[in-house]
Design a protein that fits this description.
This protein is mainly alpha-helical. It contains seven helices and no strands. It has one domain. Helix 3 runs antiparallel to helix 4 and helix 5 packs parallel to helix 6. The N terminus is likely disordered.
């Protein structure tokens, strides 16, 4: 019963260091995505309206919401030692990153509004703004969320608490047939002729003497 409890507990626990780097990166990306539309105008790197801290409903839905969700997911990943909490953080990051990528395209359909137009004089800067604000940022968040899910879903060998139990040795299978082996018989020891005839001769002498004595006894009688 104790071993079963240890197995269930070990399945939910994981080292906090495993998701620390990915979690902190997600926090940084979430802060970037949520704040860049408000501070970008200070560096001439913004969408319209291009003045600092200008709030619109579209910015709230398309940038602040996924950015804040990414921050929450990153904090769960970075500071939890529970596998389920880390998986929840990973899924939040994946969903937020996907919304960064597709939110700008579906916003007119949902009636959210437009995120604005990039303030750029060249196509290169326009592409840099699109990547930094939406598509590139979202793809990176989705990638890190997938890494977190991979690390928390797979149970590594060092997470399993081994129990010191003697290993049971497999029994050797019985042979299906006994191989034929010829029996080896030791040769009988050689017996000399004297060992056979000498006791027989002595016995004959004794029997002859016995008959003589019996005959002498009868004659005296």
């Amino acid at each position: 019963m104790k071993n079963a409890e240890n197995g269930r507990g070990g399945g939910l626990r994981m080292p906090r260091s495993r998701g620390a780097v990915s979690g902190l990166l997600l926090v940084f990306l979430g802060v970037w995505g949520a704040l860049i539309p408000f501070v970008g105008p200070h560096f001439d790197f913004a969408y319209t309206p291009d003045h600092a801290w200008a709030w619109t409903a579209a910015r709230g839905w398309l940038e602040v919401l996924p950015g804040g969700t990414t921050v929450v997911g990153g904090l769960l990943v970075a500071f939890t030692g529970n596998r389920l909490s880390a998986m929840l953080g990973g899924w939040l990051a994946v969903l937020a990153g996907a919304w960064f990528v597709v939110g700008e395209q579906v916003a007119p359909i949902l009636g959210i509004g437009s995120a604005g137009d990039p303030v750029a004089a060249t196509d290169r800067k326009r592409a840099a703004l699109e990547i930094s604000y939406f598509s590139g940022l979202g793809a990176l968040v989705v990638f890190l969320g997938g890494v977190v899910l991979a690390l928390t879903t797979v149970r590594l060998a060092r997470d399993v608490r081994t129990v010191d139990t003697p290993a049971r040795q497999p029994e050797a299978p019985a042979p299906m047939y006994q191989p034929y082996a010829p029996r080896y018989e030791e040769p009988a020891p050689e017996v000399s002729p004297d060992a056979i005839t000498k006791p027989r001769a002595e016995g004959e002498r004794k029997s002859a003497k016995g008959w003589r004595r019996q005959g002498a006894g009868r004659g005296a009688a």
